[in-house]
């Protein structure tokens, strides 16, 4: 559930001091409180009493969780992390009974609505099947009046609630654009003003997102917490994104660390990579690898000797080569990555983060360069994949 926000708490993301606003008297469901914390404390006690009722907990869709967890997440009566027992009070206070003597007539809303997904409000939190709030606003303006109660029984991340509030907080530029479009389509001028909304969803994650999209929050505190997280992340992994500007251009972080004497940690666990084919690597494993020439290019006798020498180059240092066969258009090799006394896969600063793919790249790259010279050709020699 959302309520009409004071002007200083609208979705402009740059409100005045929210702490000061929270210390002012507030009215909620016809009750006046000295401040917002008093309002929250009062309704938390009411919610706590409901949670003690066994019948209340037997309600269909009731989440699994302790009373304290539900209370900690809730901000009653506007949001509860369980079926909301205050909805009837909300409707009674803010709604109005149907009056058959009051005419209500709307033509079907037959206007194309096209909105992108780049709006900052939309991108604040991802959710499957999410609809931009600006795509919902025209429908709410067309079918409802300011102050009406809108129900979204499958609210997802709460964009209907955002749209209902946007009807009262939209900037002047948006209002002029929409009014011009409606005039062109022969639709009457919209009646601007916030609508109240009841949001419901079986998913606790959905209602939690919806509540945080629609209930006022302290932007400064949110910014402080976000900056703290970013600072912690930067301290832990920021070095990965450092660059060095010098005569050789921009050097990536790995080369900077390499110059400082850093060496990558040895591979000690299963690793899987994939291009068109999946590739598995496990420390200490013996590999039977086959790779082929590109489009069946045939290797001369001299070229096959180049390949065999390339295969033997790392023998005794980075790999233990058991056997190798070089055919005119493909190569077989049986080998094991060298390990140290601890059983770790050998590392080499010259090859950076050592693994099977780096060894294969070294062999194929060197041999291709040399064979192109031997056979007086240029271009691709080996297929990119191996198996």
Short note summarizing the structure:
By secondary structure, the chain is of the alpha+beta class. The chain has 14 helices and eleven strands. Mean pLDDT is 81; it is low at 1-15 and 341-353.
Give a structural overview.
It is built from 14 helices and eleven strands. It has 387 residues and is α+β, with helices and mostly antiparallel strands. The protein is elongated.
Integer average pLDDT: 81
**Beta-strand content:** 5-15%
Helix content: 25-40%
Sketch the topology as an H/E string, one letter per element: HEEHHHHHHEHHEHHEEHEEEHEEH
User: How would the global form be characterised?
Assistant: elongated
- Based on helices, strands and strand pairing, what is the structural class? alpha+beta
Query: Count the helices. How many?
Result: 14
Describe the biggest sheet?
3 strands, antiparallel
How far do the termini sit from each other? 57 Å
Q: What does the radius of gyration come to?
A: 33 Å
Uncertain parts: 1-15, 341-353
Number of strands: 11
Order of neighbouring strands in the sheet with most strands? 9-11-10
Secondary structure layout:
Layout: H1 18-22, E1 26-28, E2 31-33, H2 36-51, H3 54-57, H4 67-73, H5 87-94, H6 120-123, H7 133-143, E3 149-152, H8 159-169, H9 172-184, E4 196-199, H10 204-214, H11 219-237, E5 244-246, E6 249-251, H12 253-259, E7 271-274, E8 278-281, E9 286-292, H13 301-313, E10 319-326, E11 330-337, H14 356-374
Parallel strand pairs: 3-4
Antiparallel strand pairs: 1-2, 5-6, 7-8, 9-11, 10-11
């Amino acid at each position: 559930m959302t309520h009409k926000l004071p002007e200083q708490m609208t979705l402009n993301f740059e409100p005045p001091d929210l702490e000061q606003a929270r210390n002012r008297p507030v009215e909620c469901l016809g009750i006046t409180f000295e401040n917002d914390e008093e309002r929250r404390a009062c309704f938390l006690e009411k919610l706590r009493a409901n949670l003690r009722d066994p019948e209340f907990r037997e309600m269909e869709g009731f989440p699994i969780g302790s009373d304290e967890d539900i209370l900690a997440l809730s901000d009653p009566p506007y949001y509860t992390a369980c079926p909301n027992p205050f909805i009837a009070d909300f409707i009674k206070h803010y709604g109005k009974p149907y009056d058959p003597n009051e005419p209500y007539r709307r033509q079907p809303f037959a206007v194309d609505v096209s909105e992108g997904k780049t709006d900052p409000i939309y991108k604040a939190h991802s959710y499957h099947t999410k609809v931009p709030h600006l795509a919902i606003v025209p429908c709410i303006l067309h079918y409802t009046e300011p102050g009406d109660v809108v129900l979204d029984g499958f609210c997802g991340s709460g964009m209907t609630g955002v749209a209902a509030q946007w009807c009262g907080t939209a900037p002047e530029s948006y209002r002029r654009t929409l009014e011009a479009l409606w005039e062109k389509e022969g639709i009457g001028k919209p009646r601007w003003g916030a609508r109240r909304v009841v949001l419901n969803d079986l998913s606790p994650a959905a209602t939690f997102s919806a509540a945080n999209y629609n209930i006022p929050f302290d932007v400064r505190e949110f910014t402080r917490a976000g900056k703290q997280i970013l600072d912690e992340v930067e301290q832990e992994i920021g070095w990965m994104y450092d660059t060095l500007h010098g005569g050789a251009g921009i050097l990536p972080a790995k080369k900077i660390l390499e110059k400082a004497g850093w060496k990558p940690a040895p591979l000690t666990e299963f690793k899987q990579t994939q291009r068109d084919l999946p590739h598995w690597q496990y420390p200490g494993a013996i590999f039977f690898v086959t790779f082929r020439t590109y489009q069946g290019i045939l290797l001369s006798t001299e070229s096959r000797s180049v390949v065999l020498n390339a295969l033997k180059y790392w023998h005794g240092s980075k790999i233990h080569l058991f056997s190798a066969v070089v055919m005119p258009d493909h190569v077989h090799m049986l080998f094991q990555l060298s390990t140290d006394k601890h059983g770790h896969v050998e590392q080499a600063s010259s090859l950076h983060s050592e693994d099977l793919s780096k060894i294969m790249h070294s062999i194929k790259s060197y041999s291709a360069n040399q064979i192109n010279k031997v056979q007086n050709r240029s271009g691709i020699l080996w297929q990119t994949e191996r198996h």
